[in-house]
What does this fold into?
Amino acid sequence: MMKAFFSGYVSLLKKISIILFLLGTGSLLCFAFVWPLWYLATKYTGLYTCLALGFFALLAVFSIAGKIRKELQKCSTTTERMMYLRGICIKWIFRCLMLACVWAAVSSVLAEKRLMALVYGILLVVIYGLSASKG
It folds into this structure.
């Protein structure tokens, strides 16, 4: 009878100890990872910014490279691969040109050169139209 009475408490204590262990481990891991990032962000902001931008740039490069690699494996001939790579290069050239136009237009607006901003805006629409027609 006493064994049945204490078995409920034992299982309850096991569950509570597991929950406390998980909370403690989670808190320790969060402190181990978050505190250095917070310290770096508050004391060395320039370094933190460079590291964060570098990390996200590497993440973007690796994800784009992985997608390109998958698509290149689907191509059977060298000609198909070259055409695929040519298409990617053309798309990125158009994207860079559009980004440059947006940057130039915003810079012109901030410098109060509205006519130049209008020219860059029209150029952006033309480049977008050309990139859309290339498919």
Remarks:
- DSSP finds four helices and no strands in the chain.
- The chain has a mean pLDDT of 88.
- Residues 2-43 form the longest helix (42 residues).
- The two ends are 79 Å apart (CA to CA).
